[in-house]
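Notebook, bench 3.
Goal today: get a predicted structure for NACHT domain-containing protein from Curvularia kusanoi so we can plan the truncation constructs. The sequence was checked against the plasmid map this morning, with no discrepancies at the termini. Length recorded as 1077 residues. Pasting the sequence as submitted so the record is complete.
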Amino acid sequence: MRLLRLDSDGSFDLVEFTGDEVPPYAILSHTWGADAEEVTFRDVTVGLGQHKIGYRKLIFCGKQALQDGLNYFWVDTCCIDKSSSAELTEAINSMFRWYESAAHCYVYLSDISTDGFVQHKQHVQDSNWFRRGWTLQELLAPKSVRFYTAEGTLLGSRTSLLQEIQTATRICSQALEGELLHQFSIETRLSWAEGRRTKRAEDAAYCLLGIFDVNIPLIYGEGRRKAFIRLHREIRDSLRSEDHLSHQALSDTTAGPEPFGAVGDRSPISSRAGTMSMQYEMITVQKLLDSLHYNGLEERQHHVREAQIGTYQWILYPQLDHSLSDSSFASWLSSPLETRRIYWICGKPGSGKSTIMRFIHENLVLPDHLSPWSSDNIVFRAQYFFWNPGSELQKSVIGLLRALLYQLISQLRSHRPTMVPDVIVRAKWTAACAADNATIHWTQRELQSTLKRLLGKLKTFGSVFLLIDGLDELSGAEETRDELLRYLFEMADSAHVKICLSSRPWNAFRDAFEDCPHFRLEDVTQNDIKLFIGAQLSSQTRFRHMLRFQRHDSENLMNEISQRASGVFLWVRLVVRQLLSRIRDGDGISKLSKQLHLIPDDLNCYLRQMFDSIPSERRSEASVILQIALYEDSEFATLHPLYLLDLSFLEAGQACFLLSKGFKFDSGSLTESDNLRFCLDSTLRLLNSSCMGLLECYHKGEGSSDGVYKDVGNTALATSLSKTALDGEDSELGWSDDRPERFLIAQYDLHEANILTVDFFHRTCRDFLLTSDIQTLLHEQSNGPFDVQMYLVNARICQFIALSQLPNCHHEAIELASNILSSLARPSSRDSVEGARLATLFGASFESLMHTHDADDSSASYIMASIDSWESEKSSFLTLAIDFGLHSYVRENLKMKSVREKKGRPILDYILRPRFPKMREHIKIGNTEPNLEFLRMVLTMGVHPNEMYGPSSVWALFLCFFADLLNSGLSENYVPVYVAALDVMIRAGASALLPKSWLSTKTKYDLYSYELLFQDQTYMSSRKRFLRRWLDIQPATDTFGDATEPCYAVEGLLERFRPQLGASIDELKTHLRESNI
């Protein structure tokens, strides 16, 4: 452990201690400012950082520690060398213990600085410190916690401020007074973290490690959801290891397919058993929440531009603008008498609808804005931002319903956890309780029914506020839209539900909401636009000079922009950006006015002007870049946005460049940091010079669950990076000015390059480029439509090859591999010659990576189950290709030698038990059913259908697998393929008699989770598993080999399938008798 010591000259030393040598020390708890403001490990070691704002925290902590008789203290910003991933991992996993062992914890509230103790005490609960993720353990772990203002004034201790802390955190007094945390349920501890934020998405889970006394490896880049999946898995495994015997006693007394956590089904064996039933109910609820969540659920919300500081205040505080009537939005929110419980915000394209919806969501104060309507009820709130350019779920009714349910059930779990089973459709609760970790799929009808039941349950104690942005971005026919509108009005019929909606003013929405309170955004944002124009232009040093010496002309320029805007914020943003560029290029106020007069008032005409301004020598490149940006992958839920690095291979000149004769990929161009920086810088410059601001590069930063997006910068247009570079200020993304060279891009490592993404400046830019005449122009410049799918898979194979050669990049490489495999598995690629050749090239690097790296804790979604089981199944790229349905590759490589020499899981089993069962309706990739072509191929190579796998056989596993699928509701569309596979196996000599133990084994592999097949980690006993599959089947009188256990005739097992297979069973039984004569 590394501690700080304040020297007599005011400087700081870092002293390292090991084991029991650690002396008494104080520890600081605070909220981080901007990274550039905090004193780092390097700053302290070289004696720098005195000019940083964060230095005052070190001075405060050091002096306070000395006053308390302590020579040493610890501050996270500079006591951890964050350049070392190993040290960072150790520190985060040790953090709770370090705070727990400290003599005193000083909480430095940098946002509390008013005078007077009474005022401090009243406002301490408003501090942002209580809303940060890491401060939760910093509040609970230490023995002594004292709170101080920004000036270092003592406010009080955790004990003296107990009431204020309880108000701010909703944490019970027992926990705050030091009761051991394991005495509180997992649900309760999770509820303490609700609403807290972290800079990095994954930290929302990592900051809870100490609260639950578990450890997991850190995988920054995996995302919030996957980090929580691993956290819950670790908590679950910890519970199982501690309480296996208690839970075994419970499960042995509970019969039926859904014994876990069903209300009223618990047996009072002991208080400990009851606790375990509640813990398993928590796991079941988490499985349901996982099934509702999807990648990108909150992506659009965080991608929406934040409001300019000072704008939109009137929407929640109408007293700031007396022009608003009493029917304002704020009045509607609070009124208990309002019978029209839908509020509609409409506006032209680009008027700022999504921005104001984000502002409402982030600035709504509970319960202030909703009282007296919400009365003393618990307020439940959920929001959704439709996104037409996004995935199918992001622009669908199902995506909306899943998002709303995910948020509302999460909140219900915190406030009334025992009510959750009552609101879930019974079939879904049963599926979640099932021992085998099957993927849970929701129909729209089930989602609507569940949401209706949930709202009904909340009526007695809750008020519900829903915020839904972008109804016009919903995909589908008019009937889909009309059905959604009817459902929204049905929800709003309840007095405890209010809904705020936004959309473009289409006729359908005008008709639907004509009697609802509403306003047109462009009619009420004149003052906001003026504020935005002034703030943006005044941020430039040269314009501030103009304001000082040419105030009249400068103000006229700003007024003209405002007057011509017609309420369209996007037009204003584009104009201001263009004028800032001209200011930096030296234009004076006269030239700026002339330039403004050349800009069309109509937004689409302005976009066409920008498009036409692309230099002729750049139009071919621009066409390809814009087509890549317009590409939507509807065949699988992509986890990858368009990265700046994806565009760095355009110089190759063709889509399938990896297979061209003249192309040779040099991985050093990406693995060496200087080369990578040059590559990214060149690509950014190409983007800026070719696309004239229609596309922009964004820095996916920190500060929200899915990250926030900041404009990286633009060489030609006014953006944050170029502004600071030319104004002589340090950029958070660029180099400081003391470097001899100037790059637009900071020095990233390859695994960090994915924080640079490319997207349209606004959805309206995309809509413009999708018009038929612009599409024609784009295709003319690229000699026909550019094959974006092929280009991206080539580009990402190159990135994978480079990543696989770097240390500590295994998880990033696997994440990318999932995308590559999904791309190669799409219908247009999986049977092509090019697809097979690319798979061969990719497969060699993939196997090399898997031979040299540990496969544990992969975070990639589609590939997760295959990777997690890689070592136990002795997998290869061939088996991975079978999992993903790379048909052309498998045909070329499924040879007798590879089949017969395969160790671990037999090739035949991969073919019969697909990795993506029942997924055909949901994704168009992967092996979703037995492949009859490959089945016949391996059987003709001499593979026996009764081949052993562990303590069972491939044939027995297939029968059990099929029985489980039928029990979980296998669609009749799949049945013919499984019948054919059964027939092929039977004709090849599959056994007519099987031991009971072979028919009791687990068989399923979840898409997002893997458990060892023969290591029974579930609480369902093999006896129960057998009964679920083969109820009422009597054992045969014959025996199987030397087996002493009961055996069962396959003819009898087949009879179990008759309700679904019908007369096909008779034919299968006939073939079985013929094959076993």
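The chain is about 45% helix and 10% strand. The longest strand covers residues 378-385.
Flagging this for group meeting.
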